[in-house]
Amino acid sequence: MSGFTLHGYFRSSASFRVRIALNLKGVAYDQAPVHLVRDGGEQLQAAFRALNPDALVPALTCDDGSVLTQSLAIIEYLEERYPTPALLPGLAADRAFVRAAALQIACEIHPLDNLRVLKYLKQELGASEAQKDAWYSHWIHLGFASLEARLASDSRVGSFVFGDAPTLADICLVPQVWNARRFAIPLSDYPTIVRIADHAMQHDAFAAADPARQPDAST
Amino acid sequence: MSGFTLHGYFRSSASFRVRIALNLKGVAYDQAPVHLVRDGGEQLQAAFRALNPDALVPALTCDDGSVLTQSLAIIEYLEERYPTPALLPGLAADRAFVRAAALQIACEIHPLDNLRVLKYLKQELGASEAQKDAWYSHWIHLGFASLEARLASDSRVGSFVFGDAPTLADICLVPQVWNARRFAIPLSDYPTIVRIADHAMQHDAFAAADPARQPDAST
């Protein structure tokens, strides 16, 4: 027992983010998979709701028994408890740049392409498969276009979003690119985003967090 | 000239958040209103895109000429530059609690009820007014129900979300409640949320950030 248990799902972007952060910090953790599809979604059942009333993954059970939720709050917590290696730069203005890139994904793209949103589109609004795919693709393209514009023009960008070491921004970027590829979204208009994501996946901490390598991975 | 200029819109929740934070920190700022509806949306025009390629408000122009985006990144920046009064508690676990409550609104509710999302529902998916209203209401109720469960059961909650002083969580909560009321969403199932939001609005920093009191306010 490491003291930390991640309640997540292999394909969940937000779980993927927390796995990367834990790996970067070198913090050992157990995994308690929550299957988002099987049996109508294990996250909606009483056992998981007792842990997290939001019925969302990930949740992180800590060594002191507390339960943390919301991936970005969990990662900021890890950053404060385990400052090295830093996942945010030293200067406030640079930290704001990194956090803004992370939030641009976490607030502007990911919430719209969440499983429960896609379900609502189909079940409540009667959207067709094609309309659901167009919706998914629309928010990825809108978000990636502006993020690409930002990254392509900012001198702070290096092999990672900020310089040559991974930060919170890469932690959010990589799962979003992984997701876009899963749905076969063409990414040729976003060369900076793709270059950074591919470079990051060569890093052990990112590679070990790959959905395909998790204990609950399936097709 | 204060050195800070907030490019926002009176009714935008994310702009409202940043106004509250600036007021709480006692940081003077000018306002440069960006009308989100007039002329098809000033945020979509070249002048604003040059400032923020995301075409989203708010953006904060700083005293050093840099442009910050994403409301939560801006508020964390203000917190780092002007630590007093603190908008986050001292302990990492408590900071995670406050950030999670903030993100539950900023990631799970607000992005789905954004202007551009409601537009997409109508224009691309042919949603009726009633379907659009049901969508809006659905994400408010889903998010508020779990947030209420969390706040009603956590001993850290006081007259504000964390104890008896405002934090980042209240800064996100108040605009979301304001928005829900604007659309006449019944809030009787969320007594803790309503109690905190009403208490916060008695605080000068929150009251001065009220959309109705901004220079660009209109009906």
UniProtKB/TrEMBL annotation, chains A, B:
One GO BP: L-phenylalanine catabolic process
Which Pfam families does the record match to this protein? GST_C_2 (PF13410), GST_N_2 (PF13409)
Q: Which residues form the GST N-terminal domain?
A: 2-86
Q: Keywords assigned by UniProt?
A: Isomerase
One GO molecular-function entry: maleylacetoacetate isomerase activity
Matches recorded under CDD domains: GST_C_Zeta, GST_N_Zeta
Domain GST C-terminal per the UniProt entry, residue ranges = 91-219
Which InterPro entries does the protein's record reference? Glutathione-S-Trfase_C-like, Glutathione-S-Trfase_C_sf, Glutathione_S-Trfase, Glutathione_S-Trfase_N, GST_Zeta, GST_Zeta_C, GST_Zeta_N, Thioredoxin-like_sf
Pull one GO CC term from this UniProt entry: cytoplasm
Q: Of which family is this protein a member?
A: Belongs to the GST superfamily. Zeta family.
Protein name, entry field: Maleylacetoacetate isomerase
Q: Which organism is it from?
A: Caballeronia hypogeia
